[in-house]
Target: RNA polymerase, sigma-24 subunit, ECF subfamily
Amino acid sequence: MCLAHRFSGLLRAWRSLNTPQNREAVKGWLFTIVRRENARQTLRARLVERG
Model:
């Protein structure tokens, strides 16, 4: 899935949040996504370095 599609879906989800409770619940979800993506990118960079 390309980055544009991922961002589009994330943006739609973010815009759908209307209540403060939902915003707080999603905060942890967003941090999890960012943390996993960072780990994935780090692993990919290491694999490229090994050649």
